[in-house]
Amino acid sequence: MNNVSFVPPSNWSLLQAYKQRIPGVFTTDFPAAPPVQFNYTGNVSSSLWQPVAATKLYKLKFGSRVQLVLQGTSFFTAENHPIHLHGYDFYIIAEGFGNFNPKTDAAKFNLVDPPLRNTVGVPINGWAVIRFVAGNPGVWLMHCHLDVHITWGLAMAFLVENEVGLEQLQWRNPMGSPMASNARKKL
Which of 6, 10, 39, 71 is the least buried, fewest Cβ under 10 Å from its Cβ? Predict the structure, then answer.
């Protein structure tokens, strides 16, 4: 994803490394966009077949509204990819074929009643756009559900930062406790 082939850590879990501040397990410099723009669904040059092998996470602030364009490619062969995101359900707001074009394909967005899922089928030589709110702190893997693709690195992880929000107060304190009741009154 974004020319980074995900390498899972060998000694620590990502969440453990994050919570215990263990250095050298991952970096937070996963690219926000592909470093090279090209015709993703056309005849892809073999010079682009060498992604960086790394454990790079993408950092999100708690409560961020996230929109992802999942673009299929024709590397090696065109194939569909069932992309799954752990820790979240997301809205599938659009799907299409060819290369995603933000100027023309945004008109296809379903903002009225999009399906809510945790896996989206990115079509062969196509794309899907998903949206979610980063309201679940921790480290969350997003990967292709075709097992062999995971071994090839078709995965990445989000690091969602901690923040004290109403959801966390309710999780830590049962409803009816003084802390949760006070939080509701402030809203």
Answer: 10
CB 138 within 8 A of CB 15: yes
134 confidence band (pLDDT: 50, 70, 90): very high
Please state, in angstroms and rounded to a whole number, the distance separating the CA atoms of residues 147 and 158: 20
Q: Using an 8 Å Cβ cutoff, are 58 and 30 in contact?
A: yes
| Amino acid in the structure at residue 142 | M
Angstrom distances, CA of residue 146 to CA of 53, 127, 143, 153, 182: 19, 17, 9, 11, 46
Q: What angle (nearest 5°) sits at the alpha carbon of residue 72, between those of residues 122 and 25? A: 95
- 129 and 158 in contact (C-beta within 8 Å)? no
Distance CA 107, CA 66 (A): 18
3-state SS, residue 56: strand
Backbone phi and psi for residue 106, each to the nearest 5 degrees, phi listed first = -60, -25
How many Å apart are CA 83 and CA 140, to the nearest integer? 13
Query: What pLDDT is recorded for position 151?
Result: 77
User: Tokens in use for 109?
Assistant: 């967005």
Task: Write out the E strands in 104-169.
Answer: 116-117, 119-122, 126-133, 138-144, 155-160
pTM, two decimals, is 0.82
Q: Supply the mean pLDDT for the chain.
A: 84
